[in-house]
């Protein structure tokens, strides 16, 4: 077994977007941070076809961390969100459009390819952090004053606080003895992108049918959008089997001419539609962020925005401990982080679960309820503005690094 040389303030495990943002946020508030996780593969990655619609507070965090300059040229603004009920139901809801301008905003946020996001964050982490270790953690030993991680390159890393940003099968979560509650929907999702003859005009459209939804999200090219197609697992599996052209035909039929003729469709990846919430957010010098802590169905663009809010909230808690020369992995920090994040995570998980069930339902009473809510939103602008504000911000005060800067 190799010797442990340095005791770091924090080790962040996981080089996905949540982990990299957390490592950078902690470095920004003065913590001494090492990041550990596989290097993102260079170039376009067929397995990562997702984009992330990042809301204004997430964009402000990227600005605070010096990452936005690298990303702005990859980011497509979202100025409006349109919801269309294309079901054949008698209780069909009205079409509704939420406009950022109703809140005095230029955009709700920006859509960015996950690959571009991770590459920019990784490059910034390499500049900003004393060490970025390109390997996986294989073992974790919990001690009273530190946690020791065995890393795949044969080294050992000791830290007073470990951040588990290692995704849905988190070794950090298991090592801390934290269980999970899972929700299953028998739904799948396809993430891809496509080009179309009509411009998207910076509008994202959610089109709902019986037991399924298709969401288009603008890309930088006015004639290209990313796509999330959610439906019953069997339907999604069948769509994945189709050759590119046939999939384009199926998409064209589903969109019903919404963005004109479909030209090319990119690589497709299938994701399970599942919900997961960790029973606790922290224990034994380990805190969880991103998908290690919570997974939401891909409806309403909430998942990664929630992970970014974890990162910024943890930075506030650690900054406070460092300011009083406290222990960044102490119980008080873990408790403060749990207090700061619990309500936001619980309300988003509940809200997205409810939305998934209501939007993907063919059951009469739920469809009727959905119709009534959408009618109310359409005809009552103050209610619409209130719903938009809830969608954009957490129920608690925004963490420091997410507050708008002049930049
Ligand atoms: C179809 C779809 C569309 C979505 N659209 C949006 C959207 O528009 N907006 C939004 O906010 N969210 C969206 N999401 C959610 C978002 O994609 C996820 O929340 C986000 O990618 C999760 O990032 P993460 O860093 O938490 O986890 P991951 O990306 O899973 O990263 C985990 C990292 O940990 C590493 N790792 C794992 N084990 C170890 C180990 N032992 N040691 C070291 N490293 C390890 C992995 O290699 C990986 O790099 C969408 C999700 C889906 C499925």
What tags apply to this protein structure?
single chain, globular, alpha+beta, 407 residues, nine-stranded mixed beta sheet, binds flavin-adenine dinucleotide, eight-stranded mixed beta sheet
Write the topology of this structure.
Layout: E1 7-13, H1 17-28, E2 33-36, E3 51-55, H2 56-64, H3 68-71, E4 76-78, E5 80-85, E6 96-99, E7 109-113, H4 114-128, E8 131-133, E9 137-142, E10 147-151, E11 156-164, H5 171-175, E12 180-196, E13 203-209, E14 212-218, E15 224-232, H6 233-241, H7 244-255, E16 262-265, E17 269-278, E18 282-283, E19 286-288, E20 294-295, H8 303-323, H9 331-359, H10 364-379, H11 381-392
This protein binds flavin-adenine dinucleotide (FAD).
Flavin-adenine dinucleotide (FAD) binds near residues 17, 19, 37, 52 and 298.
Plain-language structure description:
With 407 residues, this protein is an alpha+beta fold. The protein is 35% helix and 29% strand. It has 11 helices and 20 strands. The chain has helices spanning 17-28, 56-64, 68-71, 114-128, 171-175, 233-241, 244-255, 303-323, 331-359, 364-379, 381-392, and strands at residues 7-13, 33-36, 51-55, 76-78, 80-85, 96-99, 109-113, 131-133, 137-142, 147-151, 156-164, 180-196, 203-209, 212-218, 224-232, 262-265, 269-278, 282-283, 286-288, 294-295. The strands form 3 sheets. Strands 5, 6, 12, 13, 14, 15, 16, 17 and 20 form a 9-stranded mixed sheet that branches. A hairpin with a 4-residue loop joins strand 9 (137-142) and strand 10 (147-151). It binds flavin-adenine dinucleotide. Flavin-adenine dinucleotide is lined by residues 13-19, 36-38, 50, 52-53, 114, 136-137, 165-167, 171, 189, 191, 228, 271, 290-291, 298, 301-305, 307. Flavin-adenine dinucleotide binds next to helix 1, strand 3, strand 12 and helix 8.
């Amino acid at each position: 077994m190799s010797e442990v040389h340095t005791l770091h303030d924090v080790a962040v495990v996981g080089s996905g977007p949540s982990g990299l943002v957390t490592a950078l946020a902690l470095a920004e508030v003065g913590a001494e941070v090492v990041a550990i996780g596989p290097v993102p593969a260079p170039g376009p990655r067929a397995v990562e076809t997702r984009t992330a619609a990042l809301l204004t507070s997430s964009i402000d965090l990227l600005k605070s961390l010096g990452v936005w300059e690298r990303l702005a040229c990859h980011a497509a603004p979202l100025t409006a969100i349109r919801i269309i009920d294309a079901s054949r139901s008698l209780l069909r809801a009205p079409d509704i459009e939420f406009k950022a301008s109703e809140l005095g905003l230029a955009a709700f946020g920006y859509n960015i390819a996950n690959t571009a996001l991770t590459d920019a964050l990784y490059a910034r982490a390499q500049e900003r952090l004393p060490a970025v270790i390109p390997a996986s953690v294989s073992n974790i030993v919990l001690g009273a004053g530190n946690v020791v991680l065995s890393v795949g390159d044969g080294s050992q890393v000791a830290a007073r606080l470990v951040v588990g940003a290692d995704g849905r099968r988190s070794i950090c979560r298991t090592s801390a003895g934290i269980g999970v509650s899972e929700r299953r929907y028998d739904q799948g999702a396809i993430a891809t992108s496509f080009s179309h003859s009509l411009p998207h005009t910076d509008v994202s459209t959610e089109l709902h049918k019986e037991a399924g939804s298709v969401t288009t999200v603008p890309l930088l090219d006015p004639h290209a959008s990313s796509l999330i197609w959610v439906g019953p697992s069997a339907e999604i599996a069948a769509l994945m089997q189709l050759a590119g052209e046939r999939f384009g035909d199926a998409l064209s039929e589903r969109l019903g001419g919404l963005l004109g003729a479909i030209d090319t469709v990119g690589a497709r990846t299938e994701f399970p539609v599942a919900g997961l919430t960790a029973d606790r957010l922290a224990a034994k010098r380990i805190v969880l962020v991103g998908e290690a802590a919570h997974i939401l169905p891909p409806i309403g663009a909430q998942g990664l925005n929630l992970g970014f809010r974890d990162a910024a909230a943890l930075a506030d808690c650690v900054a406070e401990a460092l300011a009083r020369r406290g222990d960044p992995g102490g119980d008080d920090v873990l408790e403060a982080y749990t207090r700061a994040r619990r309500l936001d995570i619980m309300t988003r998980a509940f809200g997205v679960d409810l939305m998934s069930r209501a939007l993907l339902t063919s059951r009469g009473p739920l469809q009727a309820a959905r119709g009534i809510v959408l009618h109310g939103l359409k005809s009552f602008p103050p209610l619409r503005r209130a719903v938009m504000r809830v969608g954009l911000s957490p129920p608690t005060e925004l963490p420091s690094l997410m507050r708008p800067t002049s930049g």
